Amino acid sequence: MDTVPNIAPIPASGSPASAEDATTRPSAPLQYRVVAKCGVTKARVGVMSVRHADVDTPVFMPVGTQGTLKGVLPEQLLALDCRIMLGNTYHLGMRPGTTVLEKAGGLHRFMGWPRALLTDSGGFQMVSLLQLAEITEQGVRFQSPYDGSECMLTPERSMEIQNAIGADIMMQLDDVVKTTTTGPRVEEAMHRTIRWLDRSIGAHARDTEQSIFPIVQGGLQPDLRRACAAELTKRNTRGFAVGGLSGGESKDEFWRTVHLCTDLLPEDKPRYLMGVGFAADLVVCVALGIDMFDCVFPTRTARFGCALTRAGQINLKQRTFAQDMRPIEDDCDCSTCRTYTRAYLHHIVTVEPVACSIVSVHNVAFQLRLMGDMRDAIQEGRFPAFVKSYMAVRFPDDTVPQWIRDALAAVNVQL
Predict the structure, then answer these.
(1) What's the pLDDT tens digit per position in 152-185?
(2) More confident of the two residues 92 and 142
(3) 41-65 residue pLDDT tens
(4) Which of 49, 84, 161, 366 places its Cα 20 to 30 Å from the Cα of 320?
(5) Any binding-site annotation on 337?
(6) Residue 334 annotated as binding?
(7) Which one from 120, 175, 281, 291 is the annotated catalytic residue?
(8) Distances in Å between the alpha carbon of 239 and those of 86, 188, 270, 291, 376?
(9) Range 250-264 average pLDDT
(10) Coiled coil located at which positions (predicted)?
(11) Contact between 43 and 378 (Cβ < 8 Å)
């Protein structure tokens, strides 16, 4: 018999982060408006207003899998003006479970985070992280890594957990296959994702407070992506995600799929590209019309002593930094760069636990600042020049990868 954590009755309505927020937040759970467009590329600036924050897009969303961003406190994220972060439905549903989350008043209060939250559906973890997982029409059957019990995650169960978590944006449970998969399994997963969306919508108990984003699937096959987007956009949802990428496909296949999907999705709703976080990829995909991104990369690479800069990633463990008294980046005003030198960080990375926090703060600040710089460039009508300048710094001596040249050329930027 399947075992899952008990679910207490879901409240009819949740509470905003504060009394002040209650007077300023929009009446609809998600409102999105485009405030500026690039006249050359598909890049745009928007404002996505949800119950807990106004989120400026394009936006990078740090990933706090267990309700915490590894190495970074909520107050540090607030100091960086982070407006939205992620939680993981699968992990939070297993531990601490919905009973604890509801008793706490939802994940916002449980983790002390007053701004916006997005939760994934939990399906990706089951396919990517668990060996004993079986996908059927009912859902994903898996073995719990916590106690070994057999569990079933269905679209309905995913909605129950996400309703209890109380995230502003929720992802539908989708049928995830590796991007390198070929044959009939890709089409099967695409059609099942559409059916599971309808079940998710039917099970959603808090539509006046939380918004579901469908996920466009279809692998690397343009006809399947078109068919999936055509069906998903018939549903009255408040935003859309592009899934099933960054899983081993070539960069050429990656950008062409993103380019196609943004052409297929509505202009008046946010577009979320799941699991993408390398800086150059962010710049390219903003040019291709994406509004939202997430990735564990900035904090994960920090745990290995690596820091992000405009010129690329640097490994602070290398001896070349042992006497380098500069900050990670000269023009960065984050608390790490204001306080610590590369030499000091070389001394502690991967040795002292606090180093993870110090470098993670910078890496998250780097991602957020990059998105802010792109928003400014779009609004000021200089985004193509920004892209060219960024790529010249990131890839000096004319070493820009061909896939980036091709992707940008597709939106009228010639490097």
Answers:
(1) 999 999 999 999 999 999 999 999 888 889 999 9
(2) 92
(3) 999 999 999 999 999 999 999 999 8
(4) 366
(5) yes
(6) yes
(7) 120
(8) 16, 23, 5, 10, 23
(9) 98
(10) none
(11) yes
194 within domain boundaries: yes
- Evaluate whether residue 288 is within a structural domain: yes
Q: What is the CATH number of the domain that holds 97?
A: 3.20.20.105
Q: Is the pTM of this model over 0.90?
A: yes
Listed in sequence order, the residues at least 6 apart from 351 whose beta carbon sits closer than 8 Å to its beta carbon are: none
| 356 annotated as belonging to a binding site for a ligand | no
- Considering 175, 281, 291, 294, which one is annotated as catalytic? 294
Q: Is 254 annotated as a binding residue?
A: no
What is the distance between the alpha carbons of residues 89 and 312, in angstroms, rounded to a whole number? 32
Domain of 281, in residue numbers: 30-296
Residue 69: both structure tokens together: 């961003």
376 is known as an active-site residue: no
Helix 279-287, helix 251-264: angle, nearest 10: 40
Say how far residue 238 (Cα) sits from the centre of its chain. 16
**Enclosing H/E stretch for 142:** strand 140-143
120 catalytically annotated: yes
Q: Is residue 358 part of a domain?
A: no
Q: Is residue 355 in some structural domain?
A: no
Gap between the Cα atoms of 407 and 256, Å rounded: 7
